[in-house]
Specification:
Hypothetical Protein Aq_1857, Chain: A; DUF779; globular; DUF779 domain-containing protein; single chain; alpha/beta
Length: 125
């Protein structure tokens, strides 16, 4: 099975800490400008998803009981559907709405195009 989204070890470590502080979490990637182009991490249920959003997958984090859902706006997905996303974390100030903001770090997306084989498996060719 081809994953559309994954995470670095550093992001997983931060998500373990954030889950202890906030409970179950979820991500949403909106595709706006500035902080809107960063993945936003919320307590699960605090951000309402709907028909204008695409569920890219669930991130399994060792030590976290529940997978962390990753959602993207459908408009942004149209641009990124041929891309594998990796959630990473870097030092810096992110959006005040994302739960990692007080930690002095922010989540960041690193991306690569799917291989032809991955694209075929996902029905993108």
């Amino acid at each position: 099975m081809v994953e559309r989204v994954s995470l670095t070890d550093e992001a997983a470590a931060l998500l373990r800490r954030l889950t202890e502080m906030h409970g179950p979490l979820m991500f949403h990637q909106s595709g706006g400008c500035c902080d809107g182009s960063s993945p936003m991490c919320y307590p699960d249920g605090e951000f309402t998803t709907g028909s204008a959003d695409v569920h890219l997958g669930d991130l399994a984090v060792d030590g976290v009981d529940r997978p962390i859902g990753f959602w993207m706006s459908a408009n942004q997905y149209e641009y990124w559907k041929h891309t594998h996303l990796t959630v990473d974390v870097v030092k810096g100030r992110g959006s005040g709405f994302s739960v990692e903001a007080p930690e002095g770090v922010r989540f960041l997306i690193r991306s690569r195009l799917f291989t032809d084989q991955e694209s075929a498996t996902l029905g993108l060719l």
